[in-house]
Write a structure and sequence with these properties.
One of its GO terms (molecular function) is aspartic-type endopeptidase activity. It comes from Setaria italica (Foxtail millet). Belongs to the peptidase A1 family. The chain contains 8 helices and 32 strands. The chain has 460 residues and is mainly β. It has 2 domains: 242 residues, Cathepsin D, subunit A, domain 1; 174 residues, Acid Proteases (Cathepsin D, subunit A, domain 1), CATH 2.40.70.10. It has a 6-stranded mixed barrel with strand order 4-5-14-6-12-11. The chain has a 4-stranded antiparallel β-sheet with strand order 20-19-25-26, with helices on one face. A 4-stranded antiparallel β-sheet has the order 23-24-28-27. A hairpin with a 2-residue loop joins strand 25 and strand 26. The protein is globular, with a radius of gyration of 22 Å. The two termini are 14 Å apart.
């Protein structure tokens, strides 16, 4: 019977893939090992909502991973929109092995791992393997012979370090050698600058790194030759499930598939290694919005692709589509929700369809809100109830702060500085999502992810 590796979803980090992992990757993850998955949040800083890597979102999916020899427990963000996995590192100098801490580490201690190795220049790993990255790895200036990596994200966060290799242990599978970014300095758009030596204060709430799961040559998926993986995200902060390898048939509900969109020629705004699908329409309730097909498809520059991204919290639409959705949602919810009435209020720089109401009123109204459907070629992602609204942290209105501020969980891509549609993980809650690279498609089906996780815990 084929195995399936199911992982615990928590926050941050990807680091897999050393040379030669591709050949036996499917053997490692072709069987049935199940692990839990988590949604992890962080409290907001004093003046702005907290930020985890991309688009100032304060909630990420995380997975627990053991890295190095002896294994060190780390927590990593599961990100299907990123390629190179990375870990915040310290101790990258002379090895002085020390026993690993019992819980997740704030930083990976490279000097304590006997299997850690920095990639040197010149080498194929440095000069060729990173060809799909926006900024490929590069050789440091002499006399150093290290291979440097520099990563940046849409919210202006960035990370810098060296390309390295070590073993990654996921659940009950054998250790996997993988290339990753051993990050020694980073900049967070909301948390300021940091380095591996002083990162422990913020890392108590954050993860140790990021697990890159797109289709690029340095992603965890590519390095391990994983041809199929899936996840099921529980509602709210509940647990979920990550499945690596196998066909998932014994666990997944019947899926509706949409094909991955491929564009062979390089275009400036098209991400060729993303999980890009075709958005064919958007509906609010039964009303299909009057959005021209040309607005929903990539243009001659590649702008306008639709990406399925577990590393982004909410969903983003380009301005023309967003404006139509916002107008129809406000129109249909007028009897249920009072608009905020503050034209200058924009949550996280991209969400301006906002309301004011006590929590109890929104809880009652959420059952009556019109469902929003993202209509794909052959499938649909339906968003209903509590997933449609997000309570803005720290914002209260009315006498005595009786009313909270709520915003529609669809943002304006143009306001966020993006040129794409992005389906974020908030709208993938209680949806079984399968990435089938073998057949070039992504599958969706409604699911009770909390029950799937319980079945996992009982050894189903």
């Amino acid at each position: 019977m084929q195995q399936i590796l199911l992982l615990c979803l928590s926050l941050l980090a990807h680091a897999v893939a050393a040379v030669a992992a591709a050949a036996d990757g499917e053997a490692r993850f072709g069987g049935r090992v199940l692990l839990p998955l988590r949604v992890q949040g962080a409290p907001p800083p004093p003046q702005a909502p907290a930020n985890k890597l991309r688009f100032r979102h304060d909630v990420s999916l995380t997975v627990s991973v053991a890295v190095g020899t002896p294994p060190q427990n780390v927590t990593m963000v599961l990100d299907t929109g990123s390629e190179l996995s990375w870990l915040l590192c310290n101790g990258t100098g002379t090895r002085a092995p020390a026993p690993p801490p019992p819980g997740p580490a704030a930083a990976f201690n490279a000097s304590a791992s006997s299997t850690y190795g920095a990639v040197r220049c010149p080498s194929p790993e440095c000069q060729w393997r990173g060809r799909d990255l926006p900024v490929p790895p590069f050789c440091a200036a002499p006399p150093s012979n290290s291979c440097r990596v520099s990563l940046s994200y849409a919210d202006a966060s960035s990370a810098d370090g060296v390309l390295a290799a070590d073993t990654f242990l996921l659940g009950g599978a054998p250790p996997v050698p993988a290339l990753f970014g051993c990050v020694t300095s980073y900049y967070s758009a909301t948390g300021g600058r940091g380095s591996s030596g002083n990162a422990t204060s913020s890392s108590q709430e954050a993860a140790t790194g990021l697990l890159g799961m797109n289709r690029g040559s340095l992603s965890f998926v590519t390095q391990t030759a994983t041809r199929r993986f899936a996840y099921c995200i529980g509602p709210g902060y509940g647990p979920g499930l990550l499945v690596l390898g196998g066909d998932g048939a014994a666990l997944a509900p019947p899926l509706n598939y949409t094909p991955l969109i491929e564009i062979s020629q390089p275009l400036p705004y098209f991400d060729r290694v993303a999980y890009s699908v075709q958005l064919e329409g958007i509906r609010v309730g039964a009303a299909l919005l009057p959005i021209p097909k040309s607005v929903l498809a990539p243009d001659h520059t590649g702008a306008g692709q639709t990406m399925v991204d577990s590393g982004t919290q909410f969903t983003f639409l380009l301005a023309d589509a967003y404006g139509v959705l916002k107008g129809e949602f406000l129109n249909q919810t007028r009897p249920l929700l009072a608009p905020l009435g503050e034209p200058g209020f924009v949550f996280q720089g991209a969400f301006d369809a906002c309301f004011r109401a006590p929590e109890a009123r929104v809880a009652a109204a959420s059952r009556l809100l019109p469902e929003v459907g993202l209509v794909l070629r052959g499938a649909e992602v339906a968003v209903a109830g509590e997933k449609l609204l997000y309570r803005v942290p720290g914002e209260r209105r009315g006498e005595g702060g009786a009313e909270a501020v709520w915003c529609l969980t669809f943002g304006n891509s143009d306001m966020a500085g993006m040129s794409a549609y992005v389906i974020g993980h908030h709208h993938q809650q209680n949806v079984w999502v399968e990435y089938d690279l073998l057949n070039g498609r992504v599958g969706f089906a409604p699911a009770r992810c909390d029950l799937a996780t319980q079945r996992l815990g009982s050894g189903a």
